Structures are given as C-alpha cells and as structure tokens.
Amino acid sequence: MENLTEKKMIRAKQKVEDIKKFYKHLVSYILVNLFLTFVWSFSFKLFGDFIVSNQFDEDGFKYIPFWLIWGIFLVFDALKTFDILNFHGKDWEEIKIEEFMKEEK
Predict the structure, then answer these.
(1) Which residue in 25, 1, 5 sits closest to 13, CA to CA?
(2) Mean pLDDT per segment of 10 residues, for the chain of length 105 residues?
(3) How far apart are CA 26 and CA 84, in angstroms?
(4) Which of these, 73, 37, 70, lies nearest to 55 by C-alpha position?
(5) In the prediction, which pLDDT does 12 show?
(6) What pTM does this model have?
(7) Taking a C-beta distance cutoff of 8 angstroms, is the pair 43, 51 a contact?
(8) Minimal CA–CA distance to 68: which of 82, 51, 54, 85?
(9) Left if phi > 0, otherwise alpha if psi is -120 to 50, otherwise beta: which for 52?
(10) Quick one: which of 15, 41, 51, 85 could link to 79 by a disulfide (CB 3.0–4.6 Å)?
C-alpha cells in the first residue's frame, strides 16, 4: 500500500511540474509575441517597407508566421499536459513498466 502511495505522490509531483512548464511556455509565448509586435510596429514607422515573417498582403501571408507555428506547438503542449491528447491510455506506462520488470526476472 505504501508503494502505491509513493507512486501516486511521484506521479502527482510530475504532473505539477508539467503544468508549471506549460504555464512558463505560455507566458513566454505571450511576452515574446507582444515584444515582437511592438518592435515590428515601431520599425514599420521608422523604416517604411520593413519585411518580417508576420507580414501579409492581399493574398494572405507572404511567409508562414512563426507565431502560428509556435502556437500550434503550444496547443499540442497543452493537450499533452492536461491529458486531452493521450494515445496510450492512463495505465499504459504502468503496464509497460510491469512488462519490462517481468522480462528482467
């Protein structure tokens, strides 16, 4: 019983760490994009036709905007962190550990 409680505690601590990492990732995404938006809007005023990857014209984006790609990775990170995107199921890890332990014996 004590071993099961230790496993649950370790898993809970790891989950909290994953959530903290996700929130750091989210904050850095927001801050970097706010900073770049400010810099690019300022540089447009100074340099006129300043080309950046965020620009778009009548047909759409000239380049793939990096914030979009980063945002897609952020969404996948959120899905993984909050167990929305779980291909293996909740007990997959425990089952695999038990299989490997049986093979070692």
Answers:
(1) 5
(2) 78 92 96 85 62 58 75 93 75 77 77
(3) 17
(4) 37
(5) 87
(6) 0.69
(7) no
(8) 54
(9) beta
(10) 85
Using alpha carbons only, give the angle 93, 94, 95 rounded to the nearest 5 degrees: 90
Burial of 104 (0-12, 13-18, 19+ CB in 10 A): exposed
Three-class SS string for 29-79? HHHHHHHHHHHHHHHHHHHCCCCCCCCEECCEECCCCHHHHHHHHHHHHHH
Three-class SS state of 88: coil
Reported as half-sphere exposure (CB side, CA atoms, 13 A), residue 104 has a value of 6
Task: Please tell me the distance from the alpha carbon of residue 17 to that of residue 20, in angstroms, as a whole number.
Answer: 5
As a whole number of angstroms, the distance between CA 81 and CA 19 comes to 6
How many structural domains are present in the chain? 1
The span from the CA of 62 to the CA of 80, in Å, is 31
**Domain encompassing residue 11:** 2-104
